[in-house]
Specification:
DNA-binding; 4-stranded antiparallel β-sheet; 5-stranded mixed β-sheet; alpha+beta; Alpha-Beta Plaits; MutS, DNA mismatch repair protein, domain I; 46% helix; 653 residues
Length: 653
DNA sequence: GGGTCGCGCTTCC
DNA sequence: TTCCAGGAAGCGCGACCC
């Protein structure tokens, strides 16, 4: 995705589209002969005046502000500052140069217009006709015939149709692409068993061993691999070969489609290659970074990164500076990194703008269910839930909460998501998303696995429906809020503090439960929590009390009633909840009620239960944090200044 | 002062 | 006619906790 528009170009009043910074005129493979001016004008005309356009202008202004801020910082640098940073930069360059590894040969393979090509394979009548995969709102990719009109990936369909009225739209079908992706991966595996799949249609292969074992040159291997892929799938691909992944990726784009480019593993060749390479060709340098580097420092090619090394070290954070300098040296990853674990999972949907709270809540329900189902498929439980919102004006907000416990059920997700959303209301939205992160290491829930909860149910001799199963799963993760019925209170209690229990004991009392020791052991493996198991095996069924059993007006209620001081603060624990948080207040009330039930229980049977103060503190902490954060939230017009993003920290160098 | 968290921003496909 | 995606990851900062 190259961004080749010029900043501050032309007379805006005569040709306003020229200053509309769109990516749709970028030089992408297959778009060489495109009338860029025409494309830019049409995109501008169709976007002008829309909310999207207004937001783009805001972002543009934001970027300019950021550029000005960095300029101002640059202006403050004295000669001695610059010579100081030059020394640092020179040292850094020497260090980076010492890491150069020319012993490996990397190949980057990129399928040509993958989705479109797969669709053409499925419907040969599409061959030779301009076609795009996607819909009116957005297209995922376009074939080369469509690209000639300026149609490209990430362009809204209605603009694409304007550019190319005869454009054929084909809906996205990930099943198909996954199948063909699987075929290509079979081929890749023959060349590098540890190849790295970058996406469905891209992969990195370390072909060093293959080359030496087969006595083939990298060029021959690339040719053979492309042929094999074509034979296996009927699709074409392009390949790039270089001494590292960064360069291989750049190379694969040079002779697209159905071509290849090999960069020799020699320092001179690399430096020559890099010398005129536009910075935007580098993965990780997007529109914003490119503009900053160009406008502030006049850096357009990778080589110029080295020429301006002192300024880079002076004005960017350490990791950014390291990255920019290594780009200037043509360095990139040469090792085969460990397979990284998934760090987050999300689900988001765009819809017609609405501020109807019932409708928004329903959307949230759907998202929570989808996310929960996806998480369960992979056996994941997460701690941090992030709500993403896009307002009708295209302003994006995220709000997150980190819970004391791991959750995966849709009910738990929805409960916390609802709290996050409530704090933003009223608001008119066009998109909502939920993301879960901070996954547990060993507390994965296997949907087929028997759990302690199953055990309890078995002991009770009652069956539970799937909905209850969800509740039970959240039990295991210790989250009890939001459940009014059908919950074993003591069970819930004992699970609640799971997170704060020292898990490192090592004994096997749990086996005493006899025929159910399998489930207990399974759980033990999952949560490594013997304290809980011990308690849970102290004759749970004898201590089961349900909320349903609670009658208003009982002694439990009267002894120390929960009162909201100043209509805000809980009289028992001090937690603060605004009056509008009706459900939360009810839950909180239930919480204290349960606490008292437990007290009574403990005094009756002298069983030892876990102290729960920590949970309350966490609750309070989260609440207070939430309030503090919200005060400075962008929803009230306060953003983190964009120039902070690249600002250098004090600890640098 | 170091570690963690929340969140905005950027990038990629 | 239709009117700008969705999923994932990483970085950097301020705020806050210990």
């Amino acid at each position: 995705m190259e961004n080749n528009e010029k900043s501050n170009s032309g007379n805006d009043s005569e040709q306003p589209w020229q200053s509309y910074h769109t990516v749709y005129t970028n030089a992408k493979a297959g778009m060489e002969g495109v009338d860029k001016e025409k494309v830019q004008r049409i995109v501008y005309e169709m976007s002008k005046g829309s909310k999207y356009f207004e937001n783009e202008e805001k972002k543009e202004a934001y970027m300019k502000q950021k550029i000005e801020s960095i300029r101002a910082q640059q202006a403050k640098l004295t000669d001695s500052d610059i010579s100081h940073y030059q020394k640092i930069a020179d040292r850094k360059i020497v260090e980076l140069e010492a890491t150069r590894d020319l012993s490996r040969t990397w190949l980057h393979v990129d399928m040509d217009a993958f989705y479109a090509a797969v669709e053409t394979l499925a419907s040969p009548s599409l061959k030779g006709k301009p076609m795009a995969v996607g819909g009116m709102s957005m297209i995922s990719t376009a074939n080369y015939e469509a690209r000639k009109f300026g149609v490209r990936a990430a362009m809204p369909g209605f603009i694409a149709r304007k550019l190319c009225p005869e454009l054929i739209f084909v809906p996205v079908d990930f099943k198909k692409y996954t199948y063909y992706s699987g075929l290509t991966r079979k081929v890749f595996q023959e060349y590098d068993p540890n190849f790295m799949a970058a996406s469905l249609d891209e992969a990195y292969l370390d072909i060093t061993n293959f080359c030496s074992e087969k006595g083939m040159t990298a060029e021959e291997v690339a040719e053979e691999l492309r042929e094999s892929v074509n034979k296996e799938t009927g699709l074409t691909c392009s390949a790039g070969v270089g001494p590292n992944r960064l360069l291989a990726k750049v190379c694969s784009d040079i002779n697209k489609p159905n071509g290849q480019f090999v960069l020799p593993n020699e320092r001179m060749a690399v430096m020559t290659f890099i010398s005129s390479l536009p910075i935007r060709k580098i993965g990780g340098i997007g529109k914003v970074t490119e503009n900053i580097l160009k406008d502030v420092f006049g850096i357009a090619t990778c080589e110029e990164m080295l020429q301006k090394s002192s300024l880079i070290c002076a004005l960017f954070s350490r990791s950014s500076a390291d990255f920019f300098l290594s780009v200037g040296l043509g360095l990139g990853g040469t090792d085969t990194p460990q397979v990284t674990k998934r760090k987050s999972m999300s689900n988001e949907r765009t819809f017609s703008s609405t501020k109807d709270e019932a409708l928004l809540h329903q959307k949230l329900v759907d998202l929570a269910e989808n996310l929960s189902a996806d998480m369960k498929k992979e056996g994941l439980c997460g701690k941090t839930l992030t709500l993403k919102l896009k307002t009708s004006c295209f302003e994006v907000r995220t709000r997150a909460v980190t819970l004391p416990n791991y959750i995966c059920s849709s009910k738990d997700i929805l409960k916390h998501a609802t709290k996050l959303l409530k704090a933003e209301l009223p608001v008119s939205l066009r998109l909502m998303g939920l993301r879960m992160s901070h996954f547990s290491e060993g507390i994965a829930i296997d949907p087929k696995q028997k759990t302690l909860s199953n055990f309890i149910v078995t002991e009770e001799g009652s069956e539970r429906g799937p909905e209850d199963q969800e509740l039970l799963e959240s039990n295991i993760n210790g989250d009890t809020h939001g459940r009014r019925e059908s919950i074993d209170l003591v069970d819930a209690y004992q699970m609640q503090d799971l997170d704060h229990i020292d898990y490192r004991h090592d004994h096997n009392d749990a086996e005493a439960v006899g025929s159910s020791d399998l489930q207990i052991d399974d759980l033990k493996d999952n949560v490594d929590n013997h304290d809980m198991i011990e308690e849970s095996s102290l004759g749970l069924e004898a201590r089961v009390i349900r909320f349903n059993d609670y009658e208003p007006g009982s002694s439990l209620n009267v002894r120390e009633p929960v009162v909201w001081l100043n209509d805000y603060q809980c009289s028992v624990c001090g937690i603060e909840l605004p009056p509008s948080f009706v459900e939360e207040r009810q839950e909180h009330f239930d919480f204290h009620l349960a606490e008292r039930l437990q007290e009574e229980e403990s005094s009756n049977n002298a069983s030892i239960l876990k102290p729960r103060q920590r949970v309350i503190q966490n609750d309070q902490m989260n609440q207070s944090r939430q309030r503090k954060k919200q005060k400075a939230s962008p929803s009230q017009g306060k953003h983190i200044p964009i120039d902070m993003f690249f600002a250098k920290t004090n600890q640098n160098f």
